[in-house]
Each structure stands twice: as C-alpha cells, then as structure tokens.
Write a structure and sequence with these properties.
Length: 363
C-alpha cells in the first residue's frame, strides 16, 4: 500500500519519456525558425514559447496521444498497477503536461478531491527536468497536515490568494529528477510557486484509481483498465498507421452550439493529425441521426472517420449510441469523440463510449 505521499523510482532508459518530449519541442522550435533545444531545462529558449507556451503544450498533448508514447506509458501504468494495486487498477488514458518557464506562475494550491477525483484516486507526478525549491511542486507532508490546512481554509470564505497563502505554510518542496515519481492521495494539498530558478520545469502527471466505482466525477472512458493496458481495447489513440481522413459533424448535442462543436472538432482533429475534408450538420427534427449514419455507412467523401463533439451527440440514449457504433463496425469507420479524446474503432469495447452516457438519459 502506498502512503499519503511517497517518492518512487523507475527506469528512465526503459521509459524514456524525456527524450520523446525533448524531440517534440525541439522539432517544433526548429519548425518555427528557431534553434534546436538541447535539454528541457532550456525549453524557454524555444522559438516563440514565451509568447505562446500553449503551442508547445498542445504539441506535447499530441505526442501523449500517439502510439509511440502510449506504448511505453501503458507499460509503466501496468507496472505501477501490478506493484501497488495488486493488478487491479485503472490508469488515466492521457497525462497532463506542465511547462513552467523561469519567472512564470503555475498551478494554485488545491487537493484533487476538490476537482472531482475519487477518494482512492492517486496522482503520479513525473518531473522531466531537475526540480527543487523554487521550481517544483509543493506538497503537504502527510494526511494530518493536509486536513489541518483544509480545515483552516474552510473556516472562512477564503479567496484564492488566501487559499494559496494558507497552503504554503503546510507544504514543502519536492526535490527530484527524471527517473523519480512523486505520488500522493487525492486529499493531499499541493501546488506550485512562481519559478524562481533560471531553468524551466517540465513535468507531466496522471492518476490511477484502485477501482471503477471510485472514479469520482470522472468518466470511465478517461481510464484504461489493467486488461486494456495489455491490448488496444478502449485506446484513446489510433494504433493504425493508416492516415486518418474525415469530416466534422454537429447536431443538437444537448444544447451545445454548432459553432462551438465545430471549433472543438477542428482543433482536436488538427492536434491528432486528422485531415478534415468537409463538415456535415444533422437534420435536427429527426432523433435517429440519419445524416451521421449516411456518412458512416456510405459517405460521398473519401473518409475513414467522422469527428464529433463528444458522446453528448447521443443525448443520453444508449440504444442510439449502440446502433451507431454497430454501423461504424460494419463499415470499418472510426468515430472520433473530441471532448473525451476517444477514437472508437472496430474491435474496441463499446462500453468505453456507451458507459459514459449512464446518468445522462433525457426524458
């Protein structure tokens, strides 16, 4: 059993995430007319990053969804679950990248339970650069101190600034390097300060839940089961080398505007390297989605996928979702659910899509 917070080690040569991220950001810097980046500690030298760090974050997220990254990420997740969860855990499908340049602020203090994570869910924080006081994550020392901190915050209607000021008194810096992994429970207060060092901090974090019934407010589609880590079922990325070409699609989608749907679909397709060759909108007076079915079964476009906003296109109707997925299976057509970062392909578990609809059924 893992403690309230603990520092683990892993084989950085076997799981060389740092090299993959360095290559990604260095290639982007060169593509923007800048110099190659020699180390992630110098990522602040990348072309245009100070003006738009989000461009580099999105490049990392695209890497995280790639088959190359997912192959070793799943392997690490399987190792952690086997070692610390008796082989029965659930791994978050896509990590979150953090890039903190010198002089930049970062995440305010919080505990993950405040953001809907279940009581058994643990965070795993992996620095890809050297971190110490001044450019690291700050964490409460144990459950007792975290509870004291939360109680003090709860005594008044604390502002965000006051939450940070109170939390600082209870938290201590994590000193670590690549090959070390900090892990802590969802009730542990943590956060980051302004980077006072002259090197950048790059890290990513992910979560593991001990059981499917304690995911909090998070969807099951956001996690791999231990069994799924050994195969491709429920994958959030495409394992195929075939170039994905598709159309974007919008419908009534629980009230989301067609424009907002299109914006997300287009941005997600771009981040995944999917070529978009058209856009189609549903006939709103019909609830069996005839336009979507037409393009899944025999599209006039030469496509192999349809990019949709998310599972909200089914508006809580599990039978409708099942029939559309079955149609996609028959046509060997992929459906890309942008908001969940899920690419459904023939042979994958339908539960990863349909299970998300439970509790969302409409009258």
């Amino acid at each position: 059993m893992l403690k309230d917070n603990e520092q683990l080690t892993f084989d950085g040569n076997k799981y060389d995430f740092r090299a993959l991220v360095l290559r990604t950001v260095s290639d982007l810097s060169v593509a923007k007319g800048g110099e190659a980046i020699r180390s992630l500690e110098e990522i602040h030298c990348a072309a245009g990053i100070r003006e738009n760090v989000e461009t580099y974050r999105q490049a990392c997220f695209s890497l995280f969804r790639s088959a190359e990254f997912q192959r070793i990420f799943r392997a690490l997740g399987a190792d952690l679950i086997d070692q610390h969860y008796a082989g029965k855990g659930f791994l978050q499908t896509t990590p979150t990248v953090r890039i903190q340049l010198p002089g930049a602020d970062s995440t305010s203090y919080h505990c993950d339970a405040w953001y809907g994570h279940g009581g058994s869910v643990r965070s795993f924080w992996m620095p890809l650069t050297r971190v110490s006081d001044g450019n690291t994550l700050y964490l409460a020392s144990d459950k007792s101190s975290s509870e004291q901190c939360i109680a003090e915050i709860g005594k008044s209607m604390a502002t965000l600034r006051q939450i940070n000021e109170i939390s600082k008194r209870y938290c201590h810096p994590i000193n670590a390097k690549f090959g070390e992994l900090a892990t802590f429970a969802s009730y542990m207060i943590h956060g980051a300060e302004r980077n006072r060092q002259d090197i950048s901090r790059v890290s990513f974090d992910f979560r593991i839940a001990s059981n499917e019934d304690d995911l909090g407010s998070k969807s099951r589609t956001n996690f791999y089961s231990r069994q799924e880590l050994d195969g491709t079922a429920g994958a959030s990325v495409s394992e195929s080398t075939e170039k994905m070409v598709g159309i974007t699609y919008s419908n009534s989608c629980c009230g989301a505007s067609a424009k907002s749907q299109l914006l997300l679909c287009t941005a997600f397709a771009d981040s995944m390297g999917i070529d978009v060759v058209g856009n189609e909108s549903e006939i709103y007076v019909f609830d069996h989605l005839p336009v979507l079915r037409s393009h899944i079964e025999s599209s006039g476009f030469k496509i192999n996928c349809v990019v949709v906003f998310g599972t909200d296109i089914f508006e809580g109707n599990e039978d409708l979702a099942k029939s559309v997925l079955e149609a996609a299976d028959r046509s060997n057509m992929a459906i890309v659910f942008s908001s969940e970062s899920v690419i459904y392909r023939k042979g994958m578990s339908k539960e990863n899509v349909i299970g998300r609809l439970r509790g969302k059924a409409v009258a």
